[in-house]
Amino acid sequence: MSDLLLFVIVLGTLILGHEFGHFLAARWRGVKVEEFGLGYPPRIATLFVIGETRYTVNWIPFGGFVRLAGEDDPDVSEGLSGASKLTRAIVLLAGPAANIAVAFVVFVIAFKFAAPDFNRVRIGQVTPNTPAAQAGIEVGDIVEEAAGTPINSFESLQKVTSEHLGKPMELMLDRSGAPVTISLVPREDYPEGQGPIGVTLSYPTAKTSWGEATQMSVSSIGSQVMAILRLPGRLLSGDAAPEEARVSGLKGIYDMLGWASSIDRTSERPFITMNLIGVISVGLALANLLPFPALDGGRLMFVFIELIIRRRISPQLEGYAHAIGFAVLIILMIYINLQDFVNPIQLP
Q1: Among 79, 112, 256, 296, which one is most buried in terms of CB atoms within 10 A?
Q2: Could you give the CA distance from residue 103 to residue 163 in angstroms, rounded to a whole number?
Q3: Which residues pair with 116 in a beta bridge?
Q4: pLDDT digits 0-9 by tens, 224-279
Q5: 330-348: string of b/e by CB count within 10 Å (b at 16+)?
Q6: Reported pTM
């Protein structure tokens, strides 16, 4: 799969999932949905109409959108703005909640089928005409021991190898469940990027149950949320560098997905890519909950203010706030995306 196709599918799925959350909550709470669109306008065609909802396909192929009746006009029948505070809160929270749900599913699948076992070392690649190739090491071999030392990490194998440069070293391997012993001599001089024996190391897939994968998924989401919430405080205290708070735009996300997929192609599992998708989905949920006008969090802020002061803020004033907030967001997105080109994110 090309990086561009992966980018379109991932970003489109996350955005579409977000909007589908709003859609389901609106239908449940009796808010009229005027349009559910695949992609962004201009419109290509109307696929069909069910009830009062028009289902459309649009030209810009990123995710989709939901157009709810009366988003800023409380006088519209069955509209969002005229609904109860509870209904508005549920509909607004449903989008970010859907992103958390997507992240949960992605993490569970990643930990169940693609999670690396960090306590074992697998041979990911063997370079031709190197000590490893000449000794008969094969891709997929698990290194159990090196020179009598148990191997449980990249570092442990690298340490033993560095101690045997120019000297014979015996490796005990697990090859598809069968023990194999080979002997080789790590090179003292070797081409850059090959290492003394000429292999690329990876991790085998960890065996986890659905229950363990579920627990790990919940833990990953919790860790991600707490890391983002603590970031402002860490920045103010100097515990975090400004680069850690870097917000990436479309190009940044494209670069990160390309980097992750390139690593996963060599390890024959999509763990890093799936983990990154989960992280992006959680980040999208939290970004939409920021109390900034035009975002879901900004609209929730007005619901919260209404709950506190026990009266409705002028719909016209709220509409102006969201319009200004949307304009500011557009400017910020242009700046962020330009930064991705001028000062690209540094990937490991």
Answers
A1: 296
A2: 44
A3: 205
A4: 999 998 988 888 888 877 777 778 888 999 999 998 888 888 776 789 999 999 99
A5: eeeeeebeebbeeeebeee
A6: 0.84
